[in-house]
Amino acid sequence: MPLKRDLLAQFSREELVSIVDQFELDAPNRRKKDDLIDVMASSKRATVAEILPNLSRDRLKELCRAFDLDDSGKDKATIVQRLIGTGSPSNKPSEAKVRANTVEENAAPSERHHRLEPTRDRTSQASIIGEEVAAQVQIPTGRPREGNRDSAQASGAFG
């Protein structure tokens, strides 16, 4: 759900002047877009729920796209609800999520990243990751292998 000020910033100055007139707000400087946004953002009468239904369906869809919301549908009320945040959540995944899922799905099973469920205990996640890494890579434990014990003793590493 976009904030009122962020939503108002998407309007042109002419649209803002029209809305200020509609709600009979006192705007000291009607020439500056920022001043109009300030007046409307602080207004209790000019709510987003009152402003949006007066816009055309195409303009509402433009606003949805500007905030990366689902812009499908023909019913204005549904589109307004998405922008206000009272409707059902958007089913349209963001482009980044779609790209990430597509890359991971197309990867070979051995190349896929393991996704861990979020938990409150980060140490358990770290230990799981450490065990996975240790299983894939042989990490020296500080002791030489049985066959290399003589060379390690000769160098003075273990004595």
What does the model show?
By secondary structure, the protein is mainly alpha-helical. It has a domain at 4-84. Helix content is 52%, strand content 0%. The protein contains nine helices and no strands. It has helices spanning 4-9, 13-22, 33-41, 48-51, 57-66, 76-84, 95-106, 122-136, 149-155. Helix 2 runs parallel beside helix 3 (33-41). The chain is elongated. The termini are far apart. Mean pLDDT is 73; it is low at 88-100 and 112-120.
Q: What's the average pLDDT?
A: 73
User: What composes the largest sheet?
Assistant: none
Radius of gyration: 29 Å
Helix count equals 9
State the helical fraction.
40-55%
Strand content: under 5%
Give, in order, the helices and strands.
Answer: HHHHHHHHH
For the secondary structure, the number of strands is: 0
Shape: elongated
Distance between the terminal alpha carbons, to the nearest Å?
Answer: 67 Å
What structural class do you assign from the helix and strand content?
A: mainly alpha
Low-confidence stretches: 88-100, 112-120
